[in-house]
Amino acid sequence: MDVPVKHLPRLTQASAPLTQAVDVIDAEGQPRAVSIPAERDLTLYVDKREIITLMTLGAHPEWLTLGYLLNQRMIRHAYELESITVDWSVNAAAVQTRFGSGTTPRNRGKRIVTTGCGQGSLFASLMDDLDSLRLAPAAAITRDTVFAIVQTIRERDTVYKNAGSVHACALFEGSDLRCFIEDVGRHNALDSIAGWLALGDLQQQTAPWVLYTTGRLTSEMIIKAAQMGVSIVISRSGMTQMGLEIALRLGVCAIGRALNRHFLCFSAGHRLITG
């Protein structure tokens, strides 16, 4: 059933404080006040059916909820949802679908526990759907664009700089930053970006999507990026063996250990322009 674009789900805007001030004692025995990241549980309900509890920073819980459902293939489009209501007084996200509880969630099969921090659980059927993913064959990135992306992230004021202990994901259109999310786990941050992307009118996109993450490039991170239509991923960290195998299989350009003006391209080198 096709639903018009104007019928995107209604969302609350239930953001929460991202850090908390605490008293500590430093190595010299002196008291100090520092900030630490928030961490709160958010239980997702779809048509009153409990799905999962995620641990999250809480910056954009509605995007996180939508992105999680999309990336786990519980829904195919944002249009399938009537509303997402987040209430921090009960730490819950209530999702109402347009078609009733008889059709959701779609994926209730065998699950694979992955290496994600924060959540990182993956339905096995996602692995079976890999060959159905199609990425833009002409999507490419220049070396200077990689450097520019890394520099943009370095200069950004972040929760990590103020309090540490979080991961970040960012979506660039070429070298232009479009969405930046921090969370206690890199998968939550990526799911939130997937939710943001699903809600936007992106018909005027003029450059390939590029995903940046502070976390390692695992199999699940590569799959989620590909599901979002992203052909190029950049990580401050490295990548795992299965992450590399899937990147090679899908034609994802995986760039790791990207610091300052240094990086390594692990896969799809034809998408990297160094000249």
Mind explaining what this structure looks like?
With 275 residues, the protein is an alpha/beta fold. Helices cover 24% and strands 32% of the residues. The strands form five sheets. A six-stranded mixed β-sheet has the order 12-11-13-14-15-16, sandwiched between helices. A hairpin with a 2-residue loop joins strand 11 and strand 12 (176-183). Helix 1 packs across helix 5 (186-199) and helix 5 packs parallel to helix 6 (219-227).
Quickly list its features.
about 280 residues; five-stranded mixed sheet; 7 helices
| Strand composition percent | 25-35%
Contiguous helical run count = 7
Main β-sheet, spatial strand arrangement = 12-11-13-14-15-16
Helical content (DSSP H or I, runs of 4+):
10-25%
Major sheet summary line: 6 strands, mixed
The low-confidence runs, each spanning 5 or more residues with pLDDT under 50, are 108-116
Overall shape: globular
Instruction: Give the overall average pLDDT.
Output: 88
Distance between the termini: 47 Å
Query: Which H/E pattern describes the elements?
Result: EEEEEHEEEEHEHHEEHEHEHEEE
Rg, Cα atoms, Å: 19 Å
Content-based structural category: alpha/beta
- Count of β-strands: 17
